[in-house]
Design brief:
This protein is α/β, with parallel strands linked by helices and about 300 residues long. The protein contains 10 helices and 11 strands. It has 2 domains: about 80 residues, Four Helix Bundle (Hemerythrin (Met), subunit A) (Up-down Bundle); about 200 residues, Rossmann fold (3-Layer(aba) Sandwich). Helix 2 packs antiparallel against helix 3, helix 2 packs parallel to helix 4 and helix 5 packs across helix 6. The structure holds 5-S-methyl-1-O-phosphono-5-thio-D-ribulose. 5-S-methyl-1-O-phosphono-5-thio-D-ribulose binds next to helix 2 and strand 6. The site of 5-S-methyl-1-O-phosphono-5-thio-D-ribulose has 18 residues, from helix 2 and strand 6. One of its GO terms (molecular function) is S-methyl-5-thioribose-1-phosphate isomerase activity.
Length: about 300
């Protein structure tokens, strides 16, 4: 797989064991909710080549627990494991079906989201704001939030995209910017703290982001720093649109309070040599945007307005 920790430098990583996959997921070599779902399913297919019975169930649980917030990981793992009694080829076929469905979903989300934004904003070409990376590299191809951007751009309807750099691992600066460059969308990255005031100054028409888990009531967990954009969008009266596949909607989770927020190594925030050795850090990787701040959740099947 492409090592997303190295981008914009291109480096690949070979994954041939479950432990290597779990390590790759934890380090964000592969990341983004839909991509985690596909990686999880393929991981079970890998394990099913050599394991069965309880040993396979245990390996699947190990993969599913690699990161807690994006529900797609557990969903992908569960789907592949569910056909294990039919043998390893069936598990692989199921994992590849997860992949293919993700590709189809992203295209549908892109088109639906593009139509919605054109209706909601009533002005074109659009100036959009996004956070983290919800593009092809976070999925299999096309992307969710960036899938919407792609669909709009294909019709010449994007003026520019403002992309938060996304501290501390810089998915916006390192990955979203690469994807937008590749497809020729004018864009600028900004420090995360600049986002809300750029919105307040009327410099963007809508915010479009992905999601890691959407609770039954429409509360949305996404990369830390998403919630301030939702607050700013509500204050400015512009749409805050969440683009995600149905697999990200977790009806078993009633609301945002029930979503486990991944706590990552404080060293990611502290960096090297920038702060006192005695300085401590706190590194929650996601936040929850309450549903009343969400203008719409766009999936491959529906446009859901959880705030109304
Ligand atoms: O920690 P990451 O990089 O896996 O976080 C990714 C995000 O927050 C994305 O916005 C989300 O997974 C949606 S990807 C289509």
């Amino acid at each position: 797989m492409l090592d997303q920790t190295a981008l914009p430098r291109l480096r690949t990583v070979s994954v041939t064991t479950v432990d290597q996959l779990v390590d790759a997921i934890r380090r964000l070599v592969v990341r983004g909710a839909p991509a985690l779902g596909v990686a999880g399913a393929l991981g079970v297919a890998l394990a099913a080549r050599t394991l069965d019975g309880d040993a396979l169930v245990e390996a699947a649980a190990h993969i599913g627990a690699a990161r807690p917030t994006a529900v797609n990981l557990a969903v992908g793992v569960r789907r592949a494991l569910a056909v294990a009694d039919r043998g390893p080829d069936a598990v692989l076929a199921e994992a590849l079906a997860v992949r293919d469905e993700d590709i189809a979903s992203c295209h549908a989300i892109g088109d639906r989201g593009a139509t919605l934004l054109r209706e909601l904003c009533g002005t074109e070409p659009l100036r959009l704001h996004t956070h983290c990376n919800a593009g092809a590299l976070a999925c299999v191809e096309w992307g969710t939030a960036l899938g919407v951007v792609r669909s709009l751009h294909a019709d010449g309807r994007v003026a520019h995209v403002v992309a938060d750099e996304t501290r501390p691992l810089l998915q916006g600066a390192r990955i979203t910017a690469v994807e937008l460059s590749a497809i020729g969308v004018p864009h600028r990255i900004v420090v995360d703290g600049a986002g809300p005031s750029i919105i307040a100054r009327g410099l963007v028409d809508a915010v479009v982001v992905g999601a890691d888990r959407i609770a039954a009531n429409g509360d949305v967990a996404n990369k830390i720093g998403t919630y301030p954009l939702a607050l700013a969008a509500a204050r400015a009266g512009i749409p805050f649109v969440v683009a995600a596949p149905e697999t990200t909607v977790d009806t078993a989770t009633p609301d945002g309070d029930a979503i486990e927020i991944e706590e990552r190594d404080p060293a990611e925030v502290l960096g090297t040599g920038t702060v006192l050795k005695s300085t401590q850090a706190w590194n929650p990787a996601f936040d929850v945007t309450p549903h009343d701040l969400v203008t719409a959740v766009v999936t491959e099947r529906r446009t859901w307005r959880p705030g109304t």
